[in-house]
Amino acid sequence: MRRTPLGTAAVALTVLLTGCASLQSSATEVGGVRMTDDRPVRDGGTLTVALNSDPDKLDPSLAQTLVGRTVFAGMCEKLYDIDQDGTIVPQLATALPDVSADGLTVTVRVRRDARFSDGTRLDARAVVGSLLRHRDLPGSARATELAPLERAEATGPDTVRITLKQPYVPLTGVLADRSGMVMSPAALRKYGKDFTNHPSCVGPFRFVERVGGDRIVLRKDPRYYDADRVHLDRVIYRPIPDGTVRLANLRSGDIQVGDQMAPVDVRGALTEPKLQVFNSPSLGYQGIGLNVGNVKGLGEKPGPIGTPLARDVRVREAFALSLDRELINKVVFQGMYEPACGPISPGSAIAPGARPEQCPKRDAERARRLLAEAGVKTPVRMELKVSTTPESGRLGQVVQAMAKEAGFAVTLRPTEYATLLEETDNGAYDAFTSGWSGRLDPDGNIASFLRTQGAMNAYGLSDPRIDELIARGRTESDPGERAEIYEELTRRVNAEHALVYVYRQKNYAVAGRTVAGLRIYGDGLVRVSTAGYVR
């Protein structure tokens, strides 16, 4: 019998839909995009920022999480940064890099007035040491993005010369993230692998302490080169996974900023006169990662996995066809996010064709035909790891209901976020909710995840054609040619269905009205260097 487009899945979703129906009519707007607050602030005070999970390692070479990047934004500056327009600007460098005519030599000049939090002076040798550590440290999450770096050397006290194996167009963007963070060479020598517990960088605040699962404390660094513009005495980051609890703490004043707020909590905050909402478009994506070859962990050679999802791309395509991205956005996210079906955000430095994403529609009937063609026993059983936040739980329930109609039996496995990362990195999963906060250059959303043995390729994907397109995209300087490369790359990646792109977040943060000077840009980071309390 022919079923309706949602059929039994619609019945399974009724409760979730009813709970958010009253919000959907006005959910697509939250008063426009507001990324900054420039009211004058007074000096002094402590700002407490609630994160939606506990950050992973506070080591720029090893870290992988957005919440970790938010903490780094307070204490570890980079050679470059982005501004509210998405333009790359100098931070620890004094100007954009000089690139030779053949694209193989890049010269970066470094500030002369900066010191690390331990008092060590920033210089070119420190930059070189950090770059090589990012590239070479075992387990480094920066290894893939710095793989084209052949050599780095200090040619003067404040001049770094980088020699590349081939032209590498994304390099400046790479140096505007953790690969561009410079660590104190004295701290690296002293602490070695334990640097994560004693991080020392150049930044407005210096690391004081971390109590796992409870707080990370930073204090204003008087050595910071721009200390006169830093108003706060301390910043405390607290992991509070439940958005409703974060909102309750905002209302009570126990915290002053809630990061990565869920849409339902943002809607609640809009009615509160003592709260203000910040939002910016995202450069990243969220989806569901499928284990197609991760048998030994990150960076290791992919191998065969005996699950139907891993063995046959038709099974993975069937799972992708079971999902209705538009309905997921409405049911789980109040219609306040955007459906996504590729790695490149429309806000990227190169958005293929600058066209809206045309995502495939849900087609449960075709999904069932693909499973029949693949000859697999139905229902296809699979476990989906989700984080322990209520929002992730709702997403898992919706995916579970939709996939059931297409011939899948999805078991949900709520997992604490740091554990989820560890287990998926090691290949101990069938599927997991996968996401990335995004980079301006599309290579930053693709290479580390989808290149064979990429530094964050938890899926075990290995496709020579994808590898070839990634290499071409990195070396092609013509914008039109690059756009064509990334269009083809997106098609090829989607055809593998190792990472099923589902939605694109907007970056929402909620703060008390007494807080000013915050900065929240397209990378989703809450910047506190100029934050404080209104005069």
Low-confidence stretches: 1-31
Rg, rounded, reads: 23 Å
Largest sheet, order of strands side by side? 9-10-11-2-12-20-13
Global shape: globular
Helix content percent band: 25-40%
What's the N-to-C terminus distance?
68 Å
Biggest β-sheet: count, sense, barrel? Answer: 7 strands, mixed
Verbal overview:
The protein is of the alpha+beta class and 535 residues long. It is built from 17 helices and 24 strands. The strands form six sheets. Strands 9-10-11-2-12-20-13 form a seven-stranded mixed sheet, with helices on both faces. A six-stranded mixed sheet has the order 15-19-14-18-16-17. The chain has a four-stranded antiparallel sheet with strand order 5-6-8-7, with helices on one face. Helix 12 packs across helix 13. The longest helix is centred in the C-terminal third of the chain and has 18 residues, at 479-496. The relative contact order is 0.18. Mean pLDDT is 91; it is low at 1-31.
